[in-house]
Amino acid sequence: MDELTAPEGFLLRPWLPADASAVLRAFDPAEMDRQSDRPVADRAGALAWIAARTRERGARTGYSWAVVGEEGEAIGCVAVRAVNRAHGTGWVSYWTTEAARGRGVAPAGVRAVARWAFGELGLYRLELGHRTDNPASCRVAVRAGFAPEGIERGKLRYGDVRYDVERHARLADDDVNFD
């Protein structure tokens, strides 16, 4: 469970304190503030973010992986969180660094985590959502085999602005032609 390998060659491994610099760089763009429930603006914030991922893994409520590039540095994150074993469900999230965007990192990582969640965790349904004004995230979801299910109006609020979210899901028995 500690490491996964995507067929595309990306290594996924648990987050380590040594990744703090990479996390800090990843959270530098303003839009990344939305990917964390607390600020990641300095080394202490990056270490706290990593520690939270480690706690979730220990509690078996969430599993986050660093997607590692050729140089061994974390270039993205994929996770299945909000794991509900009674219902066999989980919530998938992902992000990549600016330098990694457009290289297939996120869809490869999401597909690898979905295979793991369906196999190792025995989950049946994985869900994810993206703001409707984020077509790149929608492309990741579709490329990873997640079917669109509908729009959740006004679901997210950032500052004074509310955003609609498109929900996607993938079931363990979906035929997605790349597993």
From TrEMBL:
All residue ranges annotated as the N-acetyltransferase domain in the record: 22-168
Pfam families linked to this entry: Acetyltransf_3
Protein name, UniProt field: GNAT family N-acetyltransferase
